[in-house]
Write a structure and sequence with these properties.
Largest interface: A-B, 27 and 34 residues
Helix content of chain A: over 70%
Radius of gyration of chain A: 24 Å
Number of helices of chain A: 14
Strand content of chain A: under 5%
Number of strands of chain A: 0
Structural class of chain B: alpha/beta
Order of helices and strands of chain A: HHHHHHHHHHHHHH
Number of strands of chain B: 20
Oligomer: heterodimer
Shape of chain A: globular
Number of helices of chain B: 19
């Protein structure tokens, strides 16, 4: 087990280094000078030179790479050109919205998808299964911002249970913040849950066709007990893979939902960074996202080993 | 008073009749053998008694266990009976256990699910049962996972699981078919022991007549969903009253007639002191990988027109050696030559490769399902450059193996297992090779189909002067079709010689053990059948 974890960790570090080099060169290799690009066509040479200094574009390539990476390791992501505040602060503030939103959506999606997927598998071909398959098809096909608008219409405007948008900040208290995140989390969770439920269904169905399920039935387990005691855990592996992918997607890909609900999240930060040519912000946030994706992959790898004893002994 | 009494059992699945008027009795404490070819309805009979038939099944008749009709009981009652009154084990021990659960938990589950014991006590019983089936605590703690066990050991776990609650009846569906002969003998011993000490009845389903001969008191022979003959074992083996029973016996003992004369002095294949190592996974990240020697200094030769057998249990290195001979494995030592042309993986000249072909075990997995037969059979032509009369040769090869030229337009799923194996042989023949490697080529076939394929191989050998390297775990078949035989154990050839000599007077202890473990129908039972003119 220890060697498995060590090998995964090593692969995590290598991936991070490769990713940082790729992101760094992408910004470097892009034709033109980032500073003049950021300032636009009419900038004076002095302003460009000043910005070059500020951006740390004056040293040699390896020097700049090391100072960029070193800065990130110590929490110094540079200063945003447009906001004039440290990027670390900007990102941290946004992360406090995006991370809870992502987890909220993932928890909802998992809580909906796993039982629904199992139910559909256990009742294959019967009305419950057909209903699940039809609904999830709809959940995947309909864009999430449309769900979002529908949710706002029903729960914010008509029923007035939740705010229609905005985020009060965590200092306003846990309950108001979570209430503000509820509708966006549901809007994000529905399509994800639809995908996850279908993966769960087919995974459980495949598992139910295995020989050990027949063995379990011959021992006297009911269909239901077989699903819960034997099929569930075996069916989890593909589900965990999808969950890992969804986390990365939700963390940065919630931009439309963030816009609909007017939430200050990471997605909006990147979007603003790109439109305002704030390359330092873009570079840092992208690196952070890559880091989170790699970290989640690592955690998913660990989860595989926790679920499947066959993986524990491999090096 | 019988324990299980099945009367007029009939079954249709989605309207297709599967079983018809199946009747038999199993007495307490007896071993009842149910014999038949694949698709004869043996397994369905067992599943009907367990109430585990697939969806869309319609059953008729009755199956009385004591005073309860298993076919009429509601699912709830059946659940109580399964595992408690009737235990069942299946053919594939490799996949029959949940890979995510420890063996202790899986055995204990039988007790927990029936509310007999809580987990802690159930685990104690599991320990006793695993001890009983020969998996002692020292080497097999309850915390072991299935992937840490061999096939035979896993089958023992399945047996422990099935007998944990001391059922009155154990149904074993081809329990030893996937196992090596020595393991098979041990598992059959274990089953017999359990029957003797617990007074449990055993319903043993198998395709292998020799297996039932050694263990069952009563035997029923099934064909196309019907029991065609049933009697006390020895009487049935001696009389062989039904034509189908006779056909089965004849096929299982069939020795094809060889027409060609092997020219042993003319060497086709020569293997000299071949060594093949595999790297083992590293113990930890920076450790040098260990090695396992799969083939350890093996030498052999095959003469023109000769059939040479290679026998050994799984893991002995047969398959690696086969692959090396086919030029698919790099060697760590020794040399292989086909007609004095060295075979060195991975670059074997097409002209050399075309002179040896192979037929594999699985007639279902060996073909691309999307290609027509013509393309499948013509595939080896890429070794020969442009072939002018390709079509005619495909047709010729199909006819040579007893199919029709028009079959080339069909797809592989339209053929039966035996026909597919004929197509595999046609594919091997198409390049007019000198040597055909038959890697368990008849092991997956029913006895009657197997007999036909063996006849075909013998006939083709006579016509084309082919040499065969016949690799199999089935000693009986090897004995009947080969001139010489080699016995392989742990990567080494431990004994070789004329087939009859090796089987009649084995010298090496391993050969002796293999032959002793092979189930056999007592010689005296044959004699009567033959003298009655039905053998």
């Amino acid at each position: 087990m220890a060697s498995y974890v060590f090998a995964r960790l090593l692969s995590l570090c290598v991936s991070l280094i490769v990713a940082s080099v790729v992101i760094f060169t992408a910004v470097e290799v892009v034709p033109g000078d980032p500073a003049s690009f950021m300032l636009g066509m009419n900038a004076s040479p002095d302003a460009v030179a000043a910005l070059r200094e500020e951006l740390g574009l004056t040293g040699s390539l390896p020097e700049r790479y090391l100072s960029w990476v070193g800065g990130m390791l110590t929490g110094d992501f540079g200063t945003s050109y447009t906001y004039r505040v440290p990027v670390a602060e900007l990102v941290a503030a946004r992360l406090w919205v995006s991370l809870p939103l992502t987890f909220y959506a993932m928890v909802l999606s998992t809580l909906i998808a796993l039982p629904v997927g199992m139910l559909a598998a256990a009742r294959r071909g019967r009305p419950a299964d057909l209903t699940v398959m039809g609904t999830t098809q709809l959940g995947i096909a309909v864009p999430n911002f449309w769900f979002a608008m529908l949710l706002v219409l029903i729960f914010a405007i008509n029923l007035r249970w939740f705010p229609a948008g905005g985020f009060p900040g965590w200092e306003a208290g846990f309950v108001p913040s979570m209430t503000a995140l509820t509708l966006p989390a549901i809007a994000l969770a529905l399509p994800q849950a639809s995908i996850l439920a279908r993966v769960m269904r087919s995974s459980v169905l495949e598992t139910l066709g295995q020989d050990y399920i027949r063995t379990a039935r011959a021992k006297g387990l009911s269909q239901r007990q077989t699903v819960v005691r034997h099929a569930f855990r075996n069916a989890l592996i593909p589900v965990m893979t999808i969950l890992g992918l969804q986390f990365s997607f939700l963390l940065a890909g919630a931009i439309i939902i963030e816009n609909v609900f007017f939430l200050p999240g990471l997605g909006r930060l990147i979007f603003q960074g790109i439109t305002q040519r704030d390359l330092i912000v873009v570079e840092s946030v992208v690196m952070l996202l890559v880091f989170s994706v790699i970290l989640v992959t690592f955690l998913v790898d660990l989860a595989y080993a926790a679920v499947d004893p066959r993986l524990r002994r491999r090096g | 008073m019988s324990l299980l009494s099945v009367r007029d059992l009939s079954l249709a699945i989605h309207g297709t009749p599967i079983l018809k008027d199946v009747s038999f009795d199993v007495a307490p404490g007896e071993v009842f053998g149910l014999v038949g070819e694949s698709g004869s309805g043996k397994s369905m009979t067992a599943l009907a008694c367990m109430g585990l038939l697939p969806n869309g099944s319609k059953v008729g008749g009755q199956a009385m266990l004591g005073d309860q009709n298993l076919l009429a009981l509601p699912e709830r009652r059946l659940r109580d009976l399964r595992g408690r009154e009737i235990g069942m084990i299946f053919q594939e021990p490799m996949t029959a256990l949940n890979p995510m659960q420890t063996i202790g938990d899986q055995v204990a589950e039988t007790l927990v699910i029936h509310g007999v014991a809580r987990r802690t006590e159930a685990l104690k019983v599991a320990r006793e049962k695993l001890d009983r089936v020969g998996l002692g605590a020292a080497r097999f703690p309850l915390t072991r996972y299935p992937h840490e066990l061999s096939g035979g050991q896993r089958q023992r776990v399945c047996i422990a699981m099935a007998v944990a609650l001391q059922p009155k009846l154990l149904i074993a569906d081809e329990p030893t078919t996937a196992l090596d002969v020595t393991t098979q003998a041990q598992i059959l011993d274990l089953l017999r022991g359990l029957v003797d000490e617990a007074g449990m009845a055993l319903m043993l389903i198998t395709h292998d007549l020799a297996v039932v001969a050694g263990i069952a008191q009563h035997v029923a022979v099934m064909q196309s969903g019907e029991i065609v003959e049933a009697a006390e074992t020895e009487a049935l083996f001696r009389k062989r009253a039904h034509p189908y029973t006779r056909a089965l016996f004849a096929a299982s003992e069939h020795a094809p007639e060889r027409t060609g004369h092997p020219q042993i002095a003319d060497t086709v294949l020569e293997v000299e002191r071949v060594v093949r190592d595999y790297a083992l996974p590293r113990k930890h990240l920076f450790a040098a990988p260990g090695h396992v020697r799969a083939v350890d200094g093996v030498s052999l030769r095959v003469g023109r027109g000769e059939s040479v057998g290679l026998v050994g249990e799984s893991g002995c290195g047969k398959s690696t050696l086969t692959r090396a001979i086919l030029g698919l494995e790099r060697l760590q030592g020794g040399r292989i030559a086909l007609d004095d042309i060295p075979i060195e993986a991975p670059h074997v000249a097409p002209g050399t490769r075309r002179r040896m072909q192979v037929v594999f075990q699985d007639p279902y997995g060996s073909f691309n399902p999307r290609h027509r037969v013509a393309r499948l059979v013509a595939e080896p032509f890429h070794l020969m450059g442009r072939v002018e009369d390709a079509d005619a040769r495909v047709e010729g090869a199909l006819e040579a193996v007893g199919l029709q030229a028009s079959d080339k337009e069909r797809f592989i799923h339209e053929f039966s297992g035996g026909q597919r194996q004929r197509i595999a042989i046609a594919r091997a023949l198409i390049t007019r090779p000198d040597l055909i490697v038959l890697d368990e080529a008849v092991s997956a076939l029913d006895v009657r189909v197997r007999a036909q394929i063996l006849d075909l191989l013998a006939q083709l050998q006579g016509e084309y002067g082919l040499s065969y390297l016949f690799i199999s775990h089935d000693l009986g078949v090897v004995r009947r079709v080969t001139d010489r035989v080699m016995v392989m154990q742990a990567g080494k050839i431990v004994e070789e010689g004329q087939t009859e000599r090796v089987f009649s007077y084995p010298e090496h202890p391993y050969t002796k053990a293999l032959i002793a473990a092979t189930p056999r129908i007592p010689e005296s039972w044959h004699e009567e059948a033959r003298s009655n003119g039905v053998g």
